[in-house]
Design brief:
mainly alpha, 24% helix, globular
């Protein structure tokens, strides 16, 4: 939220087009919302577009309960 009380709900600055059989390896975003495949992507294998479903579900749980389902201060424990 900025000084004018304008809030950004979402952005597509790091969006990537992914073909059906393509695997991505770029890891960006908030670790608390990432699917396990994304957290392990740099170790090999990559991930597919299904990680977006995971992230959407995390946001839905947060909106419904007010609590993050996988929050941990130490991201290595996530």
């Amino acid at each position: 939220m900025d000084d004018g009380l304008t809030m950004t709900i979402g952005g597509f600055g790091e969006a990537t087009e992914c073909r059906k059989d393509e695997r991505l390896t770029q890891v960006t975003g908030n670790a608390a919302n990432m699917a396990p495949e994304m957290l392990l992507a740099k170790k090999g294998g990559g991930y597919k577009f299904g990680v977006d479903v995971w992230a959407a579900a995390v946001v839905i749980v947060y909106l419904l309960t007010g609590k993050h389902p996988f929050w941990e201060v130490n991201t290595d424990k996530m």
